[in-house]
């Protein structure tokens, strides 16, 4: 049984010092918040809670499996979760169907919400719900083995795919569609996704932006990678690029955009390749207006040609183009979801805050904080979350002397369990890692992710009852 000593505030002179903090979410922002708290304050104790039994958020369930180097950032995040004053408690959902935020506030001096942006934006055009039309979020969750994934059959009878959007997620899903089995097999991709991608007959992938190449959101490194894919040709139409006023003279563009335009220009100028098994067509100035059905499923995506409006936006031209596709992946950004009991700005999909302090009706809510995508919105790479988390941790610690005056109940874990939560501690996570290594070995691959809740629970289960490490912070 897990034992934790009573944690009440310890007076140091006139100050009260020991702070017990819950961080909700173990993605980059949650882990960086925990790191910043323990680095800045030698007394603070942090529980990092996640609704999943596995830590690391989108680093595990979003970063593309063929980006091993970025995936390996997990080992840095892991060091933080193994810190003696940090404890990982997976399998605990906060909000609807789980522990109410108000209950959490009773158990900790402060709570930091780092819950990310769990859902996708919609296009709002007819046909969006046709079979064959998916959000990139669903596709990413499938090939990343997110346990909530229910969808399959993305690739059944698909010869042509449209990816709507030209951000880095669009590049990720385009690349995964184009990759061959030999390149995907060494990754930790779940076996069912690998099998489906190996059998895929997708020959054409159209990645389509509604604005011009100088306004695309992808980064040059990610864009260039498309050009290096084996057996794949990248096709760009110079006439379409030339619609962009910056195309003729990209020197006035910021460096990142200029490099993108230069890469695209080189591709447009290249002689047509021959015999590649797959083609990636990068298209610009086309906005989706309808998804068209053929025989009860997606058959094509209708786009309207747009033209630059001289203010960075576009206007419709009244001319349309249908691109044949049996699969559409809508990659138009993520969106935060409201957490029951927390304020929410529906326009921005974020929690209102002041330097990380949650605002309720414009006033600071003592003891409640946010960091990461739920604070800033769904943009920025992993590293962007570090300064964001530091700002929040700094605000929290500044409030600490006041927050720590409150006497807390003895053991948050027992009280969390009393709400019906079944926490998976660090030992449970390590057991999942071992099971994934064993699964991979049995398939003749490296580590292979467990694909669903049942497998994760089974793997973690044996370790749950002897989670001696969840006591680590309360030595
Ligand atoms: C598909 C994709 C690929 C990406 N690839 C890269 C890349 O290659 N390189 C890069 O630098 N950046 C990449 N990014 C961006 C990067 O992943 C984000 O900047 C970062 O993950 C945001 O961190 P976060 O902690 O705010 O959210 P998340 O990483 O989403 O973490 C949120 C955590 O909160 C948990 N949670 C949510 N709701 C609850 C709840 N109610 N109760 C308890 N726990 C909850 C979730 O399970 C999750 O673990 C990618 C993003 C996406 C979407
Ligand atoms: N390797 C990496 O480093 C990596 C990998 C994946 C993700 N990330 C990061 O994660 C964050 C999220 O990435 P993301 O790709 O989801 O979002 P994003 O960068 O915001 O890109 C969204 C794309 O969708 C388009 N879009 C939005 N609404 C649309 C609509 N109604 N119709 C057509 N197009 C529409 C946008 O076009 P407009 O510009 O015209 O609005 C943009 O091209 C980014 O910061 C990204 O850099 C990083």
End-to-end Cα distance, whole Å, is 15 Å
How would a textbook summarize the main sheet?
A: 7 strands, mixed
Which consecutive residue ranges, at least 5 long each, have pLDDT under 50? Answer: 1-16, 465-475
Q: Order of strands side by side in the largest beta sheet?
A: 5-4-3-6-20-19-18
CATH architecture heading of the largest domain: 3-Layer(aba) Sandwich
What number is the mean pLDDT?
Answer: 92
Binned strand content: 15-25%
How would you characterize this protein structure?
With 475 residues, the protein is of the alpha/beta class. The protein has 2 domains: 239 residues, NAD(P)-binding Rossmann-like Domain (Rossmann fold, 3-Layer(aba) Sandwich), CATH 3.40.50; 209 residues, FAD/NAD(P)-binding domain (3-Layer(bba) Sandwich), CATH 3.50.50.60. The protein contains 17 helices and 20 strands. The protein has a 7-stranded mixed sheet with strand order 5-4-3-6-20-19-18, sandwiched between helices. The longest helix is centred in the last third of the chain and has 19 residues. The two termini are 15 Å apart. It binds flavin-adenine dinucleotide and NADP nicotinamide-adenine-dinucleotide phosphate.
């Amino acid at each position: 049984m897990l034992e934790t000593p009573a944690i009440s505030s310890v007076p140091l002179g006139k100050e009260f010092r020991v702070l017990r903090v819950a961080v909700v979410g173990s993605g980059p922002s949650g882990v960086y918040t925990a790191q910043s708290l323990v680095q800045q304050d030698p007394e603070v104790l942090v529980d990092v809670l996640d609704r999943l039994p596995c830590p690391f958020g989108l680093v595990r369930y979003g970063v593309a499996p063929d980006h091993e180097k970025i995936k390996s950032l997990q080992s840095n995040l892991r060091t933080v979760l193994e810190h003696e004053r940090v404890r990982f408690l997976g399998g605990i959902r906060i909000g609807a169907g789980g522990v109410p935020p108000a209950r959490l506030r009773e158990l900790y001096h402060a709570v930091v919400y780092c819950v990310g942006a769990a859902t996708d934006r919609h296009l709002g055009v007819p046909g969006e719900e046709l079979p064959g039309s998916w959000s990139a979020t669903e596709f990413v969750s499938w090939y990343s083995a997110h346990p909530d994934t229910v969808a399959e059959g993305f690739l059944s009878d698909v010869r042509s795919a449209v990816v709507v959007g030209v951000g880095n997620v669009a590049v990720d899903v385009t690349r995964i569609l184009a990759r061959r089995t030999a390149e995907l097999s060494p990754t930790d991709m779940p076996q069912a996704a690998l099998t489906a991608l190996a059998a895929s007959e997708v020959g054409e992938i159209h990645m389509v932006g509604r604005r011009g190449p100088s306004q695309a959101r992808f980064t040059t490194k990610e864009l260039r990678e498309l050009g290096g894919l084996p057996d794949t040709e990248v096709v760009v139409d110079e006439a379409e690029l030339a619609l962009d006023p910056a195309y003729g003279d990209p020197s006035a563009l910021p460096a990142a955009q200029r490099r993108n335009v230069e890469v695209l220009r080189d591709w447009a100028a290249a002689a047509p390749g021959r015999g590649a098994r797959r083609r990636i067509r990068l298209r610009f100035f086309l906005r989706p207006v309808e998804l068209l059905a053929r025989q009860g499923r997606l058959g094509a995506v209708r786009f309207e040609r747009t033209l630059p409006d001289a203010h960075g936006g576009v206007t419709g031209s009244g001319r349309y183009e249908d691109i044949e596709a049996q699969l559409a992946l809508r990659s138009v950004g993520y969106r935060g979801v409201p957490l029951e009991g927390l304020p929410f700005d529906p326009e921005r999909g974020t929690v209102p805050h002041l330097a990380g302090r949650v605002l309720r009706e414009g006033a600071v809510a003592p003891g409640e904080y946010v960091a990461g995508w739920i604070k800033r919105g769904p943009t920025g790479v992993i590293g962007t979350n570090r300064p964001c988390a530091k700002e929040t941790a700094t605000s929290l610690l500044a409030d600490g002397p006041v927050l720590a005056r409150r006497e807390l109940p003895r053991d948050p874990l027992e009280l969390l369990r009393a709400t019906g939560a079944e926490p998976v501690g660090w030992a449970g996570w390590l057991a999942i890692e071992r099971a994934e290594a064993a699964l991979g070995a049995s398939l003749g691959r490296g580590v292979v992710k467990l694909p669903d809740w049942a497998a994760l629970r089974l793997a973690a289960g044996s370790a749950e009852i002897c989670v001696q490490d969840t006591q680590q912070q309360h030595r």
